[in-house]
Amino acid sequence: MNQEKLTTWFAGRIPDDWFIEPIHVNADRDEIIVTGTLAPPQLDDDTTDEARAVAHASRIDGFREDTRKQRIAIAKVAEHHFDRKVSWAARCGDTTTTFTQAAVPAMTRLRMPERAVLDTLIEAGVARSRSEALAWCVKLVGRNQAEWIDELRDALTAVERVRAEGPDAA
Fold first, then answer.
1. pTM of this prediction?
2. Phi, psi at 86, each rounded to 5°
3. pLDDT tens sequence across 91-100
4. Which end of the chain is more exposed for a tag (fewer CB within 10 A), N or C?
5. β-strands 31-37, 95-98: how paired?
């Protein structure tokens, strides 16, 4: 199912008063993450950035608790319909919190030099396990090579579009 259909499906299920902007839906083959933007709390103009961040986090926590039953019900239907786990996230001001997110195992074969990198991260206290060290490496590449990865995603989207417009292989 394409991105637009996923987004519109969730938009049709989510109550209109939950978010102040259209939702953002991010999906891969294992998980769907639905992110909505909450109205910021009314604060004095002289509120410090630190206090503002606390208020935004508190708004997100309140939303999470207040909507839990409805979000779970929507997720159950979506998980059955799309055969993927559903996670939720909320944004308020500069604060974004992702609620329980799927940790999907990924089998990989590494040679000794790659394992040595992971083991060094463990020995240095950066990670507790090879799995956590590998996740740390992936985050680092994602952050430092974000522009290049975005170009790859755009190219893959173009390939999908061209493939869909081509002759039917069946």
1. 0.72
2. -120, 130
3. 999 999 999 8
4. C
5. unpaired
